[in-house]
Amino acid sequence: MTATNDQRKIRYAVVGLGWFAQEAALPSFVHAENSELVALVSDDATKSEELSKKYGIKHTYSYEEYEDCLTSGEVDAVYIALPNHLHCKYTVRAANQAIHVLCEKPMATTEEECETMIKAANDNNVKLMIAYRLHLEEANLQAVEIVRSKQIGEPRIFNSVFTQQVEEGNIRLRDATGGGTLYDTGIYCINAARYLFQDEPIEVFAVAANKGEERFSEVEEMTSVILRFPNERLATFTCSFGGASVSSYQIVGTQGDLRVESAYAWQGELKHYLTINGETQERTFEDHDQLAAEFIYFSDCILQDKNPEPSGTEGLIDVSIIQALYKSIETRQPVQIETRDGGKLRHQRPTSAQTIQRPPAEETPDLIHAAAPSKES
Q1: How far is CA 17 from each of CA 43, 45, 58, 140, 368, rounded to the nearest angstrom?
Q2: What is the C-alpha to C-alpha distance for residues 250 and 193, in angstroms, rounded to an integer?
Q3: 62, 112, 299, 318 - which has most CB atoms within 10 Å?
């Protein structure tokens, strides 16, 4: 940072106080030295009262008072942790008041909403970043470097499993709020395949399965996907709300492979198993505060007037792929895909230069009127 900005902190309002906001985001501000938590937005008065006391926050707002928060002069940016179907509305309202936006993924539930969000940010000259925390996380960024350096030869195959047992009644199981396996967990697999292959898929195919449990009455229980990339590379993955907790991917090249365990986790150790010519090396990456890294990075983009790497375009591409996958499920046919940037707006991809490390949170906070999606979360 420049000397003039060293003392300035970007002031955030956290919008939506569900499980992830409470357990991961709010505690992370203590490690984000250029960021300050100054306001909370929620319709749950108990959440607002207890969390404002816990974190020493003076300003709380209901959703009806969101505009008051945006125009108060108290905040520079919002972190939107609302249900997926509300991302567009609350992003656009913030941008229209010249407030910067860090929005959780998926960016939105349709390509049209994503484009509306990008336009609002551009029209109002504000920064829009989609919260791809793994774009700042060492194990995933080192995986990118291993593939780019050709240590495993030419990358040919990506395979991943991301599963958990989602509790009945969780918002991820509701169609109206943008739930479903692809939007919630599949997006991680799609994004990883894209940043490891450093390319965009050109054809997709998907199959959904559901054994008829009541909790899966609105969304699929699990989905298996094939993504065809240029140069005849294939990515496959299965994501599920009805399986034991697994979070891993493997990328196979012509001379070796890399397997990453707990690949998509937001806390805890991550591990690499790199095999070249039959020899396997294991590497452990320590637990770090991934949310603090996001706030630090986004705040620095604002302070230095830099465009965030996980941009609106990044979010749009993943949503366009997810929509094509649901079309494939519906038609039972492969779907040709042309990502919306069309190669013309080729955005920067994550590199190891973006790695940000901060200590993990010291304790797991007690949840207030919120629950983790899975008992293992």
Answers
A1: 9, 11, 16, 28, 9
A2: 10
A3: 299
